[in-house]
From TrEMBL:
Xref: NCBIfam families: ahpD_dom, perox_Avi_7169, peroxid_rel
Keyword terms of this UniProt record: Oxidoreductase, Peroxidase
Name the UniProt record assigns to this protein: Alkylhydroperoxidase domain protein
Source taxon at top rank: Bacteria
Classification lineage: Bacteria, Pseudomonadati, Pseudomonadota, Alphaproteobacteria, Hyphomicrobiales
Residue ranges of every copy of the Carboxymuconolactone decarboxylase-like domain listed in the record: 62-140
Molecular functions per Gene Ontology: peroxiredoxin activity
UniProt key word Oxidoreductase: yes
Length: 203
């Protein structure tokens, strides 16, 4: 492991939540394209991800990365039913805000703003935290449910479900909100334990 551990020298580390594009750099050496086998390419699922240091680090275990990527794509891109994309991205942003993952929060807050056209509300979540009033009971309920699941997953219960349902979410939409937050509980921990954010978009 000592052979692949790296120690990036950064003059500036992003320290505030932002919708601006930032980067991420690993503390372990990612693979390079010349090292990729057919098994690695299959694990990446999307060949363009070979340009990302994050995915080129995770592809050291291609089977797990493949499962992770297909899960990610299904949760966030399969919007033929269930929650709109903006609300899914909101749940990911809320989880990332709670966990302190500046990089993930930057990516998914931009998506939430893009799909909702509610940039100022999304920025309020980043600036003020998950207790902020986002201007709609529906969004507040999604954030609160995401926070409850993030803080103590086993404590997430029927109260959160009932509140989401009272704001008009059906069972499939509630599942989408849960999946978005749950996935980023995991993704945040990968980002936070394997590297750190950078000023430039490197991931």
């Amino acid at each position: 492991m000592s052979e692949i551990a790296i120690h990036p020298e950064l003059e500036y580390r992003p320290s505030v939540f932002t919708q601006a594009e930032i980067g991420w750099t690993p503390w372990l050496a990612p693979l390079v394209e010349e090292e990729l086998t057919d098994r690695h390419w299959a694990g990446l699922v999307d060949p363009s991800r070979a340009k990302s240091a994050y995915f080129m680090l995770l592809v050291r275990d291609p089977e797990i990365l493949e499962a992770r990527t297909k899960t990610d794509k299904d949760i966030f891109y399969n919007t033929t039913a269930g929650l709109p994309r903006a609300d899914r991205e909101l749940s990911a942003t809320a989880a990332s805000r709670v966990n302190g993952c500046i990089f993930c929060a930057s990516v998914h807050s931009r998506f939430a703003s893009h799909y909702s056209k509610r940039t100022s509300d999304v920025q309020r979540l980043l600036d003020e935290g998950t207790d902020a009033d986002l201007g709609s009971r529906r969004w507040n309920a999604i954030v609160d449910a995401s926070v409850a699941l993030t803080a103590t997953p086993s404590a997430f219960n029927e109260e959160e479900i009932a509140r989401l349902r009272s704001e008009g979410l059906n069972d499939l939409e509630i599942a989408d909100a849960i999946h978005g937050a749950a996935f980023f509980n995991w993704a945040n921990r990968l980002m936070l334990s394997l590297g750190e954010p950078t000023p430039a978009a490197e991931a």
